[in-house]
Queue: 2 jobs
Job 1
Amino acid sequence: MSEVAFPTSAADTPRRPVTGLWLLIVAIAISLAAYAMAGLGLKGRTPRDFVVYGLVFTGAFVGGWLVVRWTAPRADPVLYPTATVLAGLGIAMLYRIMVARGESTVAREQAMWLLVGLAAFCLTLWFVRDDRQLNAYTYTLGLIGVVLLLLPVVPGIGREINGARLWAQVGPFSFQPAEFGKIFIVVFLAAYLTDKQELLAAGSGRFGMPRAKDLGPLLLAWGASLAVLFLERDMGASLLFFGVFVVMLWIASGRAAYLWLGLVMFAAGAWFGYLAFDHVQARVDTWLHALDPDKVTGLGYFQLAQGWFAMATGGIVGTGLGQGSPTLIPYVGSDFIFAAFGEELGMIGAVALLLLYLILIARGLRVAMERQDTFGKLLATGLTTILALQTFAIVAGVTRLIPLTGVPLPLVSYGGSSRVATFIMLALLIRVSSGPMERSRG
Amino acid sequence: MDRRIRRLGIGLVVLFTLLFAQLSYVQVFAADDIKAQPANARRQIIAEYRVERGPILSADGVVLAQSVRNEERRSELLFRRVYPDGPLYAGLTGYYSRIYGRAELEQAANPFLSGDAPELAVSTFTDLILGRQRKGGAVFTTIRSDLQEAAALALGDLPGAVVAIEPETGDVLALVANPSYDPNSISSGTDEDINAAWESISTDPSQPLISRAKDELYLPGSTGKLITASAALENGVDPVTDQWPNPRVLDLPQTTNTLENFGGSLCNGGSQTVSMAAAFQESCNVTFAEIGLDLGAKEMSEQARAYGFCATDPPEQVECEEPTIPFLLPWANGRFPVPSYFADRQPQLAFSAIGLDNVLTNPLHMALIAAAIANDGVMMRPRLITEVRDPTGRIVREFEPEQYGQPISDASAKEMRAMMLSVTQGGTASSAFSGFPIAVAGKTGTATNGENRPPNAWFTAFAPAEPGNEARIAVAVIVLDGGNLGNEATGGQVSAPIARQVIDAYL
């Protein structure tokens, strides 16, 4: 495969680095301004470590940008700055929350994880010089993905926190393996579906439906998702895996029937999950009755109610960074950080944040469309879909549009694993957008 | 494949549009309902205490109330309210309690103090944009701290009240009432402290939360003769030449009851007839009862109405829904029965003419009446706030003096002034003002206060009061339950000396 000429139309027209640099400067400026304003709003002065933080943040992200310029010179210029501003806003908000709670070390820890994530981002770009080299290890990657996904279930390694079994502990390190597992699974699916594309697209059974034997993979993914729901009690991951699988299957095969079938199976799975698992029932009940006077003090209800109160208090323009009371919301740093933005930056800020994600999504899909080869298209689409569905799931959960599923808000929420994993996904997306690293430089 | 990717993009945009719709519902359309949920009370309080509430200041720049940073670092309430001289100004500032709400200026001027008033929108929006601590506006009152202190000192521990007003503007210069309370105790501290303080203040039998200066109503007694005399002058009575019979005891129509002068004494040395001016100087009840009966219910009622008294029809107490005389703070202005009430109650008209029966007033209203007489008959509305400034010191709102009405003509005001001057010069208040270098025009009152209770002692006055001189201060003093003289108390002995000290402090 590597003999094939690099298949992208953008290959001959190098992107103008200047656009990306300007965007990066703006992104860094916004990030640091948010950090300063959080301190001003909270304590009436800029944070003590503002200069150090500013230098490290600027240095790290400019460094990351140089690595992108060097290893992926034709990369999409918008992806990296957009991720920068999201990460910067996330740290500013975490700083604001943790200082109010008297746990400012937690914010510093998350800033460290941001640096680790950035390092992982650079390493990924360095090692994955051509995304098509991933295509060579289809099943190995798939296996790693499944192992990571199931790691929390393994006795001795798995840890259960807050009723969900998402954690694995190896030595002193604990992390959420599913965050990394999803990357491997998307890569696997892209490779697998590239192989089987023609098989899936060709031949149809009765009524234009796929033949029964083609439904195998779909049923397998469905079962796996339910297994995750059952074994790990993790609604978010379960939904995400099934969602991205169905979307990639549809994109690859060109058969809308997979989409509809997927929706029906999702509905069936959700119904089954609701009947079978009390933690699913609890999620639905808290969602529907968050503000019931006789339930509102219960933990799940209280959290959703406080999230709503926070966003309602914020109104259109918000209370100003550092001037609301987001710490009244339990777990505001992880699940409910979006509500904190809604309170302190108002609807304007919340919408702006969502628009940043939409920019990532739009650029991600554009990368997919610019690629000429199936694998690149599927990989970019899959990575983008994961980001989009994850963002939608948590924001819709916090705003009570759907029941809450505890997935992190990409790049913003508290959580080292998610931060690092999202940066790796971003590196892959940038790799796909740029094409292989030139040999002369590598 | 690209077509499907594009469709995927459209699908994702649709999903995000649902998020935008939900956000606008939660943050805009349903926001007020959501915020009003009882479960949200804590956040509301914290949000309120995040604002550096503006200070309340006296006219001479003394801080009556201000917000300071909460020293407790772990507290979620950023500020706490401090009243540096709490009990002295409690009747004006009120309190600002997260548990028991707000009162007086803290309530009446709340939009300015909290920064919610539209006048302060520019300032608070700038704070928001710059991420600065949000601050409320500073409220400048008309209160003179030196005068307030002097009035409190003069009143001492006696139950009662002192009100001082600038006649030309209606500015409230001092408003002191006993008993008072410390607003600090119910405005800041732990929930337990606040609850305990509130419990003790609200169940105190002396009811310190009710200001004797403006919230309670009392019989004016002889200070009510200001109304009767005004009505007479307005109806063409000459205070010197017109004469009334001068019996020791007045037989009242429609009844066997009689009416006497104070202590059963003779008026004007027992002369055959007496003029209104002479009767005023000595405060003769018999003469003023005769004047009131001669004038009739309609004229008396109308004059009271012109002075801002609200109409009642006893025994059904018609509550004035709004005070007749508008004031920033809640208050109870005076009451005087409607003419129909007197139709078959002529004795009551006689008693009303000497400030008894169902005539009711309080020191704030009496001070306004004295101020109107001092101000050539023009009654000003009481003004308590002159201006509001934003945190940068820019004036965002000014309150001009406003006229309430003209209860008596300029000529009548001059006659009133002359009669009131005679009260401190040879009249019922002469001993209190002997040797006082400033000419004071006043009227004493000693009002019965129910069975077996010492009388309430009144004095209302203005100064300087020489003809043609512009009066700069009008004062009303009430001392309840006889003060330190018990049953022997009179307005001239108990209240006039207090008024003298207040006037002395100001002029």
Job 2
Amino acid sequence: MQRALTRIAHEIAERNENSSEVVLVGIHRGGVFLARRLAATLLAIWNQPVPVGELDIGMHRDDLDQKTPAILPTVIPFDITGKTVILVDDVLFSGRTTRAALDALNDFGRPKRIQLAVLVDRGHRELPIKADFVGKNVPTSSRERVNVCLREEGAADEVTLERT
Amino acid sequence: MAWNQKHLLDIQSLGAEEILTVLDTARAFKAVGERAIKKVPALRGKTVVNLFVEPSTRTRISFELAAQRLTADIVNFSAEASSLKKGETLKDTARNLEALNTDIIVIRHSASGAPHFLARFLKASVINAGDGAHEHPTQALLDVFTINEKKGRIEGLNVTILGDILYSRVARSNIWALTKLGARVTLCGPSTLVPRVFEQLGCRVTYNVDEAIADADIINLLRIQHERQRKTMFPSLGEYSKLFGLNQTRLARTKPDVLIMHPGPVNRGVEIDSDVADGDRSVIIEQVTNGLAVRMAVLFLINGGQGPQGVAV
């Protein structure tokens, strides 16, 4: 996992020459931890700190009628207007979370561009959304679950596929 | 996360986990209020009615803004300018509001149990914004939210509620919320307004104000509600202020980090002196800010308990 994240960090650095424009925004919860790890690697590459924000997309979901998600505070302590925002999530599946995240970011400013980094792309998109940086493509059946465990949550770093 | 309520009628029927879910959710909604764009689309297309049969400014405006910040449509209904004045029953008024496809009805009424009555026959969700002397659940939720934010916990804290307990729905809701979360509650005030029967709810009752505030982590002051008292419960406001009012002299005998709370409206010079109300231990104004966040959280959670057609799932 760490290797995949290091590679993503280098790809981000390669794609974005102007490092002072780049900010990371992790989607709760896993994406926030991954964004912090990417920031640490980017600090080593660029020799300058990269701001990290935390985004909860629960208030922007399109299925609030069916279920109520637990909501965590969104903390973006910097202006995203004119910046290159790298959205970070653990798993890319239907694309609906990303759609909600794009909506939510709208309320914080007008970024110059938004790029998407995910640890796992498991396919089955329901919206026209594509990641810019992918740790690993994992072909899955729609009946399977992808679990990303992270050491920040007290587990070992691990991605598991579970049949439901 | 725990929340399984279609309505919010009282704190008595909530579990501790559900109260904590409201507090967690409110924390996120408080952050929304601090942004340049203070609005999220969570209740887009939903309709909320503020059915205030008893006057209110703070709570009504708080619910109104909460609904607007969630992108719901909200209609305000006040009893003075309505068919209730022409003799329409509450049931008919509520049925008519529901016929307009409203999703959530927020009711304030001088009769205890009015929200429970509506919830029995309405398909819409009902939120109690204060019913008689019974309960005022969102006030208690914002009070425990404020305590938790300032103290980092509720469990084990000493909370003293001082004033008119007998006629206070705020007191009853607070007692339920605080005891469910493990706080120790002390009630104090004139004996005519603080009956011993409250001990059955797990509270300590004392008529000695110095004893009540000495070990308090929080002092929650309640207004003397002249409008609910059928007869005079104490000789004079001057005497009340002298015996129970919170002034600098009394404050000096409390814990140095005590929080002073008041649900408003404040009667300055009666239950609290101005310099205490405006002092550095007072969180009275922050309670108002937190009230908005808590009401957004309640509307959001209540809405989630419904299916696409507004039917509980």
